[in-house]
Design brief:
Length: 331
């Protein structure tokens, strides 16, 4: 009788790695599509289904990268890129418009091992800012490039550029007009059609990564940069913790919220859930800010928390967990 083909079976369950003394790590990915988004009373079943479908597509794409043996960096890039291409979210194609009617896009990515990071801000022609942020990390000595300088670098790297009209979708034009007619609320305006997007992931090697992408806030002043591309404010990853935030960026910047969550775990030895709760419900809330964050640690522990009306979020891991939620009651 022919010998059974055990190698694929051993690989699929991780036994071969164990036999060689290598540690088998859980796989996990967590994503968000923004906090402080649509009032539940205004959420139609059709619109809710659209957001859930977008979250599911990004979540599963990122997890499939991990299942194939891909890195956490590849997983968060894949997940965020899908949300950048989905006009429901405030990133890429669906980004909100500034006072002049243009989309100015910010993005950051961070690789826990070695604490490498890359970010771009105020780019106006880059189809997928998260890909450019990764190129800044991998192909330049810098961390953050902005505006025209970032787009010159994009041209050198062969990144897809698009005309500014690509980002001017009808729903964002309507939101801009509404914001212009309510100028007194401009600094606290949250785009009602989905928010900042982000992802954190843990791969088979135990490495963490984080990525965030956004269009910022509707009717913002030209040149305004929020927390998403600022390492430690809206995006952070180390060997032990990865965080992506969403909400009122100025408050995340002042509080260095993403780094603070990881610091609470590292130095005060809080659980990930405890650290996220303290940063969001105490530090951020007391400063007057609202929003939320997703976080993941090296053991595969997942935390998602917010102090706003809702936060579009989803999580999946190798234990079989798969969930998608928008509001506090996880619906």
């Amino acid at each position: 009788m022919p010998r059974p083909k055990l190698l694929p079976i051993l690989l699929s369950v991780g036994l071969l790695a164990s036999a060689r003394g290598a540690e088998v790590h859980p796989l996990a990915i967590v994503i968000h599509g923004g906090a402080g988004v649509i009032d539940p009373a205004k959420m139609t079943p059709e619109r809710a289904a659209g957001y859930r479908a977008g979250l599911a597509a990004a979540l599963d794409a990122g997890y499939e990268v991990l299942e194939r043996g891909g890195s956490s960096l590849d997983a968060v890039t894949a997940a965020v890129r899908i949300m950048e291409d989905d006009p429901e979210f405030n990133a890429g194609k669906g980004a909100v418009l500034n006072h002049e009617g243009d989309a100015e896009l910010d993005a950051a990515i961070m690789d826990g091992p070695g604490a490498r990071a890359g970010a771009v801000a105020a780019v106006r022609h880059v189809k997928n800012p998260i890909e450019l942020a990764r190129l800044v990390m991998e192909r330049s000595p810098h961390v953050l490039l902005v505006g025209d300088g970032a787009e010159e670098f994009a041209l050198e790297q062969g990144v897809v550029l698009v005309p500014r009209s690509y980002f001017r979708i009808p729903s964002r034009i309507r939101e801009l007009e509404e914001a212009r007619h309510a100028e007194e609320a401009r600094l606290k305006a949250s785009p009602p059609g989905g928010g900042t997007v982000g992802a954190v992931a843990l791969d088979h090697a135990g490495n963490l990564a984080a990525a965030t992408s956004t269009g910022g806030i509707t009717n913002k002043r030209r040149g305004r940069v929020g927390d998403s591309p600022l390492i430690g404010a809206g995006t952070y990853a180390s060997g032990d913790c990865a965080v992506s935030g969403t909400g009122q960026g100025e408050y995340f910047i002042r509080g260095v919220i993403a780094y603070d969550i990881c610091a609470l775990v590292a130095y005060r030895h809080l659980t990930l859930a405890q650290a996220l709760h303290e940063a969001i419900h105490e530090k951020l809330a007391k400063s007057g800010g609202d929003g939320g964050a997703i976080a993941l640690d090296a053991s595969g522990a997942i935390a998602m928390d917010f102090n706003s009306v809702g936060m579009f979020r989803a999580a999946r891991d190798s234990s079989g967990r798969r969930e998608i939620a928008m509001y506090r009651d996880a619906k």
